[in-house]
Amino acid sequence: MADRMHASPMRRVWTIAFREFRHTVITKGFIFGAVVMPVVMFAAIAALGLLIGMQMTPVVGTLVVIDESGTVAAFAAEELTPEQVAKDMHESLRRNSALKNWPGSDAAQQATASLPSIDVKVESVQDANRVDELRAKVQDGSLLGLAIVSPELLNANPMDAEGNELTFTLIVPTRSAPRLTGMLEKSIAKAIVKARVQRVGTDYTSLKALLALPETSVRRMSTEGAEADENAIAKTLLPMGFMMLLWIATFASGQYLLTTTIEEKASKVMEVLLSAVSPMELLCGKIIGYAMVSAVMLGMYGALGIAGLSAAAMGDLVSPGMLILMLVYFVMAYAFVSIMMASVGSAVNDLREAQSLVTPAMLILTLPIMLWLPISEQPNGWIATISSFIPPAIPFVMVLRVTASNEQIDTWQVILSLVWGFAWVGVFVWGGAKIFRVGVLMQGKPPSPRELIKWLRMA
Amino acid sequence: MLRLQFPRLLQRQPLSNYITLHSMTTSAVNLRAVWKRFGKTEAVRGIDLDVPDGSLTGFIGPNGAGKSTTIRMIMSIIHPDEGSVQVLGADAISAKDRIGYLPEERGLYRRMRVTEFLKFMATLKGLPGAGLDARVNAWLERVQLTDASKKRCQELSKGQQQKIQFIASVIHDPELIILDEPFSGLDPVNARLINRLIRDLHDAGRTIIFSTHVMHQAEQLCDRIVLINHGEKILDASMTEIHARFDPRTVQVEPSSHNPADASRLGALPGVERAQWNPERHAAELTIARDVDPQDVMRAAIALMPVRTVELRKTTLDDVFVELVGEAMPSSEESGNG
After folding, report:
1. Strands (E), chain B
2. Where is A394: in which H helix or E strand?
3. What does DSSP say about strands B250-255 and B224-229: parallel, antiparallel, or unpaired?
4. SS3 assignment, position B13
5. Are B312 and B298 in contact (CB under 8 A)?
6. 3-state secondary structure of A64
């Protein structure tokens, strides 16, 4: 007889777990799909700005403004200096609501650095009869553009007889880039406003300062009296990011678990395996194996996300406590998803059949995605509180809540969600294991819900 | 319709019962009043069975007779609804490492490499990592598949895949080997190779249970036969006992004329119940009544007409089946290359 050591149940479980892990992670498909593709995507996004900058051609040429008053062209020339264009863009980016409170908003400064070089000469023409001649010059590319400003547009109330707002015309060559056209359009519009203000004898700079809307500094006051900065980004995008991270890590592994279980049934390996291990050992081995796959994905994407936040000087938005809770909820989420996928995989013959069995649970699991905004905006509201206790969505909703709020979620709610959630994990494991034991040896049409209940009773 | 196979917890008996039962016998497998139902279908109906240690026992019977279900219960893949199953003196689950099993429906991890798959199965069966490579290579050499060691399972031919599965079932040197239809789909060369390996394992003292629906394979290999039909055991005896118990009842007469009409003349001889012309052998097959001496019929045939050969046919398992069940084995004509 062979020098046989007793194969303990744990040894068998780990043998299966390691095989599942190895044959999922060390494959071209996984390395390409889960590692190379995201890295390429991040690199592509980073390279995009660079590519756009490289694509930009210098803006050099002449813009003609037909204006009987002869005042608009001078103001337009002021607006089209490289310094003024950069200043306008910087201001626009800074005032953008999404970026307003972005820590280290030098991002705006960096964005303007990618502007093309600008050398635009602005000529004023007061003779409106030269329109056709100048149009021809635009057509042959001798001019960057031609702006036609009617005298009425410089009135204090620039309306036509019907009460419609008057417009100016900007003629540009067909090949003119939309970004350049937009720049010319904006500069001439501002020049017209400056000419109007000058006509009524007011100083434009003073008027602009008077009309500027003051910026807001929102401070959140908790019931305990603590005060914290409002952060729109943290309040909206971060919870979604965390929840999606949890979703991707658990469902990617869950999908692997589902397909490999179906494959093992279809290729008849299942009976070979069951001659060596019990169904429970097989189930545990598969779940542990794919838990390691899931952990690799969570670690990889999570580290990437935290590195990104740190690079954007937002590392302080993610506290160690938040990360610990995230890990605990990850365990819960993975347990729900994996046992569900393994038991469904054992009961069906192909992915199409699996779809109909997984759909009801998936509807519940999409709840956090559908309720993302109400939960993020009011993490202690009744919608968030109630959905925190609906299995199997519990971990996903709780991750939204704990990362959304500028104020703490009640500790009792966190503890209760953990106790309640893991109790439900127990129920899922109990039912899933029973379905798995029966399902792995089943052939033929997939079970109906009534048959599944029968399996739960009999196994 | 679902082919239902509902596992149910093995109805455990007190440990003292097992010890008592095992101490009374040297059986490798011991089944007592085992029943298995799938819905309204009774797949196994109260089977009692003892497979002696060191025997090469054939489970024979038509397709759907209950052979594979019985084997799956022995392997504790499914559990009986009633009765007890004892394997190698222990609970079937705890004896898994000491059993080798080649299931009826073959299965391999398609993308796994051959060596890796065999090492995986050996590890699951409790073999330590040290020396595993040498063991795998030795077996691959034995089945003439050394070239396939680095290949993925999906790259192998069907016959090669079956040989890999055979290795997977015996690589841990089990005490009990259960082979469910081991020759199905094999070409004659590979069938002969597997046949020889089974004999070698038997000679080395392993207990082997071998299931087939092809009678002549069982006749060639087995020293003991268990015949199952409609979920019931209808025969359980050694080949020697079978040959002693079932007298030959068929006399084959080849007339010199090779004329089929001679069959009816021979059928009219005293003691002949039925005469049938076998066109392939150009001979008449005479079924002899139970109380008649075949030697008398053979003498009468020679006296009746000029004959080329007269032969008392040896009892086959097909004959035994007909004798016991009263009808021919439904699938016994299928070739099995055994």
Report:
1. 27-38, 41-52, 56-60, 82-87, 90-91, 99-102, 176-180, 207-212, 224-229, 232-238, 250-255, 272-278, 283-288, 307-312
2. helix A394-404
3. unpaired
4. coil
5. yes
6. strand
CB contact under 8 A, A275 and B101: yes
Query: What's the topology of domain B15-244?
Result: Rossmann fold (3.40.50)
Contact A12 B165 (CB under 8 A): no
pLDDT recorded at residue A414: 92
Task: Return the CATH number of B247-314, one of 3.30.70.330, 3.40.390.10, 3.20.20.80, 3.30.70.100.
Answer: 3.30.70.100
Whether B120 and B108 have beta carbons less than 8 Å apart is answered as no
Q: Is B204 part of the contact surface with chain A (CB cutoff 8 Å)?
A: no
pLDDT score at A4: 56
Going by the DSSP 8-state scheme, the letter that residue A35 receives in this structure is I
Q: What's the DSSP call for residue A43? A: H
Query: Closest partner residue to B110 among A267, A274, A438, by Cβ?
Result: A267
How confident is the model at residue A446, as a pLDDT?
80
A2 vs B105: CB contact, 8 Å cut-off? no
Residue ranges for chain B with pLDDT beneath 70: 1-25, 326-338
Using a CB–CB cut-off of 8 Å, the residues of A that contact B are 1-7, 11-12, 15-16, 19, 23, 264, 267-279, 437-438, 441-445, 447, 451, 455, 458-459
Q: What pairing do the DSSP bridges indicate for beta strands B82-87 and B90-91?
A: antiparallel
Q: Left (φ > 0), alpha (ψ -120 to 50) or beta: where does B232 sit?
A: beta
Q: Of A322, A306, A300, which Cα lies nearest the Cα of A252?
A: A300
Residue ranges per structural domain of chain B: 15-244, 247-314
User: Could you give the ipTM of this predicted complex?
Assistant: 0.75
Q: In this predicted model, what pLDDT tens digit does every residue of A355-401 receive, in sequence order?
A: 888 888 788 888 888 888 888 778 888 888 998 999 989 999 999 88
Weakest-pLDDT range from A85-89, A266-270, A275-279, B269-273: A85-89
Q: State the smallest CA–CA distance between residue A402 and chain B in angstroms.
A: 43
Does the predicted model carry a pTM greater than 0.80?
A: no
Q: Are strands B207-212 and A59-67 parallel, antiparallel or unpaired?
A: unpaired
Give residue for tokens 């398609």: B110
- Rounded CA-CA distance A61/B266 in Å is 120
Q: Provide the CA B67 distance to its chain's centre, in angstroms.
A: 9
